[in-house]
Amino acid sequence: GNDTRFTRRNFLKGTGVAAIAMAGGALAGCSSGGGSATAATEPASGGASVAWTKEADVVVCGYGAAGASCAIEAAANGASVIILEKAALPGGSMARCGGAIMGAPTKIQQALGIDDSADALYDWVMTCTDGTCSKEIARAYADVAGPNVDWLDALAEEYLGQPCFEVAMAEANSAVDEGRHNGAVGGCLDATGCEYEKFGVKQEEAVPRTHWATASPDNTANSGPELFDPLLACIEKQDNIEAVFNTALAKLVTNADGAVVGVEAS
After folding, report:
1. Which of 33, 97, 116, 227 can bridge 104 by disulfide, Cβ–Cβ 3.0-4.6 Å?
2. Closest CA to 163 of 215, 97, 117
3. Percentage of residues in the chain having pLDDT higher than 90
4. Burial profile 14-53: b = 16 or more Cβ within 10 angstroms, e = fewer
5. How many other β-carbons are positioned within 10 Å of the β-carbon of residue 173?
6. What pLDDT, in 10s, does the model give residues 53-90?
7. What is the pLDDT of residue 244?
8. Residue 192: beta bridge partners?
9. What is the per-residue DSSP string for 53-113?
10. pTM of the model as a whole
11. What is the pLDDT of residue 80?
């Protein structure tokens, strides 16, 4: 499709510079307005100036899948990035999940002959949530879920030297546990989801769109860390991304105009 990456100028327009001050607590600032403004001289609300210790174009709070993805894309568009993480290690909830991610359409589905679409995924989400999910949220999720799966797989190829989801694994396990895999695919792609019959969908009608990450050599089964590994490997090889651990977000810091110029963390 079309390349929708931001230019550095567009990405940073209206954000200026971000920074962190380490003194008892931590402050990460993001000044607004013209590009000539610096966080070191930006006053906080009430006219008090904040002495920032570190500066970056973007500050990301949380080093899980969402935060990592944000940091990677910001850095890819030329921004310097600081990630604040309250835990001692990265990963968030993704590193603790079972190792599956849903998306449609994807390159894995195409390689395995599975015909799917973002519209079909949207309909499925609205069906299996019995209509309680926000239509706007479901639509946004369905539209980007497939490209996100392909993006993660591409990161694994580039930074780990292997795909995150192996087509060969699916082909080798296509006849395994037909009740779960519908006899169509297995291993890295199946139709695992909710109780299909509960929502009027027969098991054999469910489209395989649940992607399972390939288990690492030291792991007996695929799991969340395998999904997070491509993000971690990418970030660790970026010179313009710095991660700060054991540092929790406390509150946003604003200037006299109400614009966010930083965050207070501890």
Report:
1. 116
2. 215
3. 39
4. ebbbbbbbeeeebbbbbbbeeeebebbebebeeeeebebe
5. 16
6. 777 889 999 999 999 999 999 999 999 999 999 999 99
7. 95
8. none
9. SEEESEEEE--SHHHHHHHHHHHHTT--EEEE-SSSSS-TTGGGS-SEEE-SS-HHHHHTT
10. 0.78
11. 93
